[in-house]
Design brief:
Blueprint (H helix, E strand, L loop, with lengths): L1 H6 L1 H9 L3 H11 L9 H9 L13 H14 L1
Amino acid sequence: MPTVLERGDQYFRELWTGFTEGDRNLLQRLLQGETPTTQDKASVRKLVRKEILCKEGVEFQVPLVQKYVEQRLEEET
């Protein structure tokens, strides 16, 4: 997986910059096992439409995207 993340770096960076602060906050909370709140409705809809989250909006659709988000959030802290 590290090789794929490295080779797809441009895609993942563009994906990341397309997230709003609210999107990033939601993704971080999902990684911590929390569920979306009613205030997250717009972000959930957007991330489902972009195929980041599953239709239920409580888990990542693609494990590779989840891994990238985990790494990115870890780097930022």
